């Protein structure tokens, strides 16, 4: 079998396509053959060393994939060979086959193909926990979502609109603005040509939004705080532009007794019951057409370096799938 292996932290060039044995499944594990692997910005963080890999180097990146069960370890009773499964979480997805704990997998409904499942699990369950658990979006809410044309942003825009929210998004180009408008956003702000704080104040009549969902980090702080109504919530769930510098927590008082949180999918879905609920909610909105998953880019898994280069260069939109 082959996989993408990172032996040293660095740029996309450290992603090496080479022989890699997946191994036999142990107790409570299964071996799966990947049909597709999802590309996410967290893959860049592990590649560069911004996030420490659980078992150090060398590492096989990737936190999201879908495929078919090909072997069962001892004690696995709720899966069988041939089952279509998907996951988001355990690192090691950039491989033709892998061994994974059975309790990290969910079965994929027949109505959803495996490319779609591979590209939506991490992004879609992230949208689920942000919109339904970090701040439970209700009809009448006004929200701001940075990186609206990204994978999470396009899913969140459709989902939040279906929940009855007024949805504001930021993007970096007019092309991305058009994409966001087609995916639920009522108002789209091009941060390269507009002051997003001023535009949010204008859109909301000076009131501010109920919640800001921010995966950008350095470039949108502290502006995100200035977009919030008093006692609003800033949910910082990523840092694609770089980490936020340490700040005095007193700024939250100064700007309106604000709430702040730094959530992660892996904590929100750490319990099996939460994982099942999150996946079920995602499968439901995709299967019934509330949320459309647009796979806008395909790359061979062996060409992961080019995919990372395009991702970091902000040349990708929506969902990107790597094919083993």
TrEMBL record:
SMART domains: PKS_ER. Keywords: NADP, Oxidoreductase. CDD domains: QOR2. SUPFAM superfamilies: GroES-like (SSF50129), NAD(P)-binding Rossmann-fold domains (SSF51735). InterPro entries: ADH-like_C (IPR013149), ADH-like_N (IPR013154), ER (IPR020843), GroES-like_sf (IPR011032), NAD(P)-bd_dom_sf (IPR036291), QOR-like (IPR047618), Quin_OxRdtase/zeta-crystal_CS (IPR002364). GO terms for molecular function: mRNA 3'-UTR AU-rich region binding; NADPH binding; quinone reductase (NADPH) activity; zinc ion binding. It comes from the Bacteria. The keyword NADP applies. PROSITE patterns: QOR_ZETA_CRYSTAL. GO terms for cellular component: cytosol. Residues 10-322 form the Enoyl reductase (ER) domain. It holds the Pfam family ADH_N. NCBIfam families: PRK10754.1 (NF008024). This is Quinone oxidoreductase. It comes from Hoeflea olei.
């Amino acid at each position: 079998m082959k996989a993408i292996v990172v032996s040293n932290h660095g740029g996309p060039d450290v992603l090496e396509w080479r022989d890699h044995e997946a191994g036999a499944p142990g107790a409570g594990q299964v071996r799966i053959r990947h049909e597709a692997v999802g590309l996410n910005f967290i893959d860049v963080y592990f590649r560069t060393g911004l996030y420490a890999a659980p078992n150090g180097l060398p590492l096989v990146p990737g936190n999201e994939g879908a495929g078919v069960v090909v072997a069962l370890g001892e004690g696995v009773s709720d899966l069988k060979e041939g089952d279509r499964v998907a996951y988001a979480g355990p690192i090691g997805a950039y491989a033709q086959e892998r061994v994974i704990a059975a309790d990290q997998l969910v079965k994929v409904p027949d109505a959803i193909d495996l490319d779609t499942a591979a590209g939506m699990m991490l992004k879609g369950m992230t949208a689920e926990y942000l919109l339904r658990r970090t701040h439970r979006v209700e009809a009448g809410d006004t929200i701001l979502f940075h990186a609206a044309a990204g994978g999470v942003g396009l899913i969140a825009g459709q989902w939040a609109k279906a929940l009855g929210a007024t949805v504001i998004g930021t993007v970096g180009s007019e092309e991305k603005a058009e994409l966001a408008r087609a995916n639920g956003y009522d108002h789209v702000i091009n941060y390269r040509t507009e002051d997003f704080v001023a535009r949010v104040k204008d859109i909301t009549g000076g009131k501010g939004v109920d919640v800001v969902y921010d995966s950008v980090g350095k470039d949108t702080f502290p502006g995100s705080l200035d977009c919030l109504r008093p006692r609003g919530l800033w949910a910082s769930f990523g840092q694609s532009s770089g980490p936020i510098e340490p700040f005095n927590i007193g700024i939250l008082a100064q700007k309106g007794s604000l709430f702040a949180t730094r959530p992660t999918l892996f904590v929100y879905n750490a319990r099996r019951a939460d994982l099942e609920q999150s996946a079920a909610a995602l499968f439901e909105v995709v299967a019934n057409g509330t949320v459309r998953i647009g796979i806008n880019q395909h790359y061979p898994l062996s060409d992961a370096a080019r995919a990372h280069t395009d991702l970091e260069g902000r040349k990708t939109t929506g969902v990107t799938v790597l094919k083993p």
